[in-house]
Amino acid sequence: MNIFEALRESHELQRSLANSLIETSGASEDRKELFDLLKNELYAHSVAEDRYLYIPLMFNDVGLDITRHALAEHHEMDELVEQLEETDMSSPSWIATAKQLSEKVHHHLKEEEHKFFQQAGKILEESEKEKLGKKYLAEYQKYKNADT
Ligand SMILES: [Fe+2]
Ligand SMILES: [Fe+2]
User: Fold this and answer.
1) CA 58 centroid distance within chain
2) Rounded to the nearest whole angstrom, what is the distance from the C-alpha of residue 52 to the centroid of ligand 2?
3) 53-76, pLDDT tens digit by residue?
4) CA of 23 relative to ligand 2 center, distance in Å
5) Residue 126 Cα, ligand 1 centroid: separation in angstroms?
6) What is the Å distance from ligand 1's center to 90 Cα?
7) Ligand 2 centroid – CA 7 distance (Å)
8) What is the 54 CA–ligand 1 centroid distance (Å)?
9) What is the mean pLDDT of residues 102-118?
10) Taking a C-beta distance cutoff of 8 angstroms, is the pair 43, 141 a contact?
11) Buried b (16+ CB within 10 A) or exposed e, 61-93
12) What are phi and psi of 53, to 5 degrees?
């Protein structure tokens, strides 16, 4: 599996968790569970993606631009997750922020899949795409299995 195929698997999961999360209400078990799952998925994916897609791209000029943009968005998503952790789950502002996070996640994944991955595909060698895919998956699994 190359790096892009591996990344897209987590993207599908992020989309479905974000969609389900914004359908929950109040401080329910469903909401708590889905928030934990989404938080863990976003964390494991972004750590492994930063290390095995974006850092290698930074050595190329176009890659550097893509990377700066993507890392800024990862940071914005982290901040929304933090804001959710600090807000009472039953308050209306929690779901408003969760919707903002969901929109940001969808926007970010679309931009990666339709723009950044296409550009990155031209920068990386085929053999590198396979190697990075393996490294990404190992790193992702490590954080998926850890408590975050
Ligand atoms: Fe990303
Ligand atoms: Fe991604």
Assistant:
1) 19
2) 11
3) 999 999 999 999 999 999 999 999
4) 23
5) 21
6) 29
7) 6
8) 9
9) 98
10) no
11) eebeebbeebbebbeebeebbeebeebebeeee
12) -115, -55
Ligand in nearest proximity to the CA of 7: 2
Structure tokens that stand for 137 in this block: 């998956």
Give the pair of three-digit tokens for residue 64: 């550097």
What distance in angstroms lies between residue 11's CA and the mean position of ligand 1's atoms? 9
- If you average pLDDT over residues 97-104, what whole number do you get? 98
Q: Is residue 28's pLDDT more than 80?
A: yes
Question: Can you list the domains of the chain with their CATH numbers?
Answer: 1-143 (1.20.120.520)
* This prediction's pTM: 0.95
- What is the whole-number distance in angstroms between the Cα of residue 96 and the centre of ligand 2? 23
Q: How far is CA 95 from the centre of its chain?
A: 19
> Percent of the chain scored above 70 by pLDDT?
99
Q: Which of the four pLDDT bands, split at 50, 70 and 90, describes residue 16?
A: very high
In terms of Cα–Cα distance, which of 85, 129, 94, 81 is closest to 24?
94
Q: Which residue matches tokens 């296409």?
A: 118
Tokens 């991955």 belong to residue: 117
